[in-house]
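BUG: 3D viewer hangs when loading the predicted structure for this chain

Environment: internal workstation, default settings.
Expected: structure renders.
Actual: progress bar stalls at 90%.

Input used:
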Amino acid sequence: MGIAENVKKVKGNIEDAAIRAGVDPDSILLVAATKMNSADRVREAIAAGIKICGENRVQELLQKDAMGAYENAEKHFIGHLQRNKVKNIVGLCELIQSVGSVELLELISKRAELIGIVQDILIEVNIGYEEAKSGFLPEKLDEVVCLASGLKGIHIQGLMTIPPQCADPKQSVYYFDSMYKLFVDIGAKKYDNVSMKIMSMGMSGDYVEAIGAGANMVRVGTAIFGERHY
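Structure tokens produced before the viewer hung:
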């Protein structure tokens, strides 16, 4: 199938999963993970109804943005953000989804204040305690959100996670459930400068399970664009 057919299929799956979960399908935000796809393929996805594009690499985002690839869609940064690239992303992306260190929180806030904006972000959580992954450990989350709530250049819109890779998508549900509990707990504490609106989790292989566990934003690449060729 082509990109348009894939977008339609993914949206149908999201609608079905939302109905089963008892939530409004329109409340689920679909982010097309556009890494390693050309500007033309990104435009094709947007024409098919994609409203948010997520990029993993700063240079790729800058190149495609200069080509007008994201016209009529939001840009989110969903990959690992290096410190020296913060200046390129703050103010360019509507949402930075992958803020997983205190240093990044402070750098993003400082840059945003410098250019006179407030940058929306998500706090990345290392829900599987994986050494190779960035993100805050669950038990540190209260402390981190408390610190971040005092930074004037950022606004926390929610949480994001990428759980450990599981052979069966149903095995991811344990991690999704754990994340949703954190999301609810943080939201109940009413920190200043924090709006727990977005729970971003689930990708091509497990977005249906993520929605069932409470995700209201999913990041889908392969199921829309096909396998990437590295």
